[in-house]
Amino acid sequence: MAGTKNNPVTARRGPSLNLILTAVVVVVAAAVIGGVLLANRSSGTGGTAQDERLVPPGAHTLSSVEGGKVTLVEFLDYQCPACAAYYANITKKLEQDYQGRITIVTRNYPLQMHPLAQPAAKAAEAAARQGKYKEMYHALYDGYQSWAVDGRDTSDDTAAATAKFEEYAKGIGLDLEKFRADVSSAEVKGVIDRDTADGQALGVDSTPTFFLNGKRFEPTGGTYPDVDRELRAAIDAALAG
């Protein structure tokens, strides 16, 4: 077969339009991918900013599954009546039923309208510094009526609440002197301030507020059993997905 003679016009012509467009697409794609990688590196964990606001390093867990498919995050206020009611009717049993199957994260979001919410959060964080966060979390909610309310009103008796928190601390085996020092420490206050700032950045404006796999959980039910069914259905769907 005879060889094909080069067309002198084609030989002198520069790169084709298709070739140029392909090169442009490749360059743009590389720039976009590079930007994503840079953003991920700057976050420190490779996650998004929202991921880190929801579950920062050192966040407290009631249940933890390494590499699990489902993470439930709750922003809570220990003196909030709704949070206490959710605990009694929904989250305490949910924690038991899904233990080891999903990751459950709790974050502080003390509201200014609740005068003992900040001291209670400090008690929980101080217990965490001795490895007993979960125990204090349960003590605070299980004993809610004994420190958070005064009759039918929200209590503002800091001294009585402090005595009750120290009683819980002794009951769960904490070093009481260290507990007292940690309650007053800048480190504990810093954790609570970080949680509150993260919640504000995520649009949290009331408690409890839940996020399931990064998406805000907005129940439609009018009763606690209704909300419980909705939340469990959402968790089960995420586990099956």
TrEMBL record:
Single GO MF annotation: oxidoreductase activity
Matches recorded under InterPro entries: Thioredoxin-like_fold (IPR012336), Thioredoxin-like_sf (IPR036249), Thioredoxin_domain (IPR013766)
Name of the protein described by the UniProt record: Protein-disulfide isomerase
Family note: Belongs to the thioredoxin family. DsbA subfamily.
Thioredoxin domain boundaries: 43-240
Gene3D superfamilies listed in its UniProt record: Glutaredoxin
Biological source species: Saccharothrix variisporea
Residue intervals passing through the bilayer: 20-39
Alphabetically ordered keywords of this record: Disulfide bond, Isomerase, Membrane, Oxidoreductase, Redox-active center, Signal, Transmembrane, Transmembrane helix
UniProt key word Membrane: yes
SUPFAM superfamilies xref list: Thioredoxin-like
